[in-house]
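This section describes the prediction task in plain terms. A model, or a person checking by hand, is given the sequence of a single protein chain and must write out its three-dimensional structure as a string of tokens. No templates, partner chains or ligands are provided. The sample shown here is typical of the held-out split.
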Amino acid sequence: MNTSFGQSSAVLSIKRGAVVHINSRTGTHLHTKSKFPFLLSLSFSTTTPRAARATASMSHHKQLAAAKKAASVAARLCQKVQTALLQSDVQSKSDKSPVTVADYGSQAIVSLILEKELTAIPLSLVAEEDSGDLRKEESRETLHRITELVNDTFASDGTINISTVSEEDVLKAIDTGKSEGGPHGQHWVLDPIDGTKGFVRGQQYAIALALLDEGKVVLGVLACPNLPLSSIAKSDFSSSEDKVGCLFFAEVGGGTYMQSLDGSPPTKVHVSTNENPEEASFFESYEAAHSSHDLSSLIASKLGVKAPPVRIDSQAKYGALSRGDGSIYLRFPRRGYVEKIWDHAAGYIVVAEAGGVVNDAGGKPLDFSKGRYLDLDTGIVVTNQKLMPALLKAVQESISEKASSL
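The expected answer:
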């Protein structure tokens, strides 16, 4: 029988002929002989919050390894498609947003690898895509191409022990992503290509994969095939000399690391320690439809930021921020837009474990336990702990000014 005392744990054990003296602070105990062999005794072992966190962190190591493998293999499929993107590879979903064969292929690969690598717990995946359009007669050729891409990617990777998959296997793998998530159990969260418009333009995108455990993000991986390994503050995006392809990964309590997608040793990264808003640089979405550039400009002006914004697509911004390329990331989508958890879960923990803070515009941490969507106040604000108070003040003043001018 387990009994909980605050944040400690207690275990009832039956010991014949022994008495256990308990130190509730340290969890140690001493066994002594009893005159009464029928005496039942209680043995309490306490776990400090720190030890509990360490135990929880250890339990996710295998899942993190599987996530890194899944995102890296999916990235190879995406790179192959982006290099020779065909017009027929790009389609429009019912909400008019673009989707490519790489979005579907990436989701299928991640689903299949997670199922293969992690058999202890049934796979629950909250992901962006579903197979509805692919099951239509007019999509038969597209489905065939996706299946070929998935099989070719597996065949070219010697570490994946997955036999040839059929078109129906691909459809089922994609539809694994229909989970609703929520506050209980474990749920993987995937955006198979975050930044599809950037992907179609040949620019930045990310494969973003995270794991929720009881509603909390406990690990995350960002594969960013086109992000330079060196700071984007110093890189020329058009230069062929900059080596590209980054893999960021983080586990709760374990920090954030970056390595190249081709497998260089990982290095620990940390957000910028800049305390002066005037010296800060900030990221925002490339697409004005994804975030209000006018509001970001007003906030930057109030802070005294002198550098122009860096506009790139996808959660690659979270990765760049986690290694200190800039100090601030602002996202203020159009009114009525509801953020999805797959657009932020992986980036959230990558920045948080690198020492950063991710809040909504009201100053509250993001809550990923509500299902497939985030319940936010106006937008998302990301920076280091020292800049956050001044940034939130500027954000709230700017939002009020914009509202009063309407």
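For orientation: The first helix runs from residue 49 to 58.
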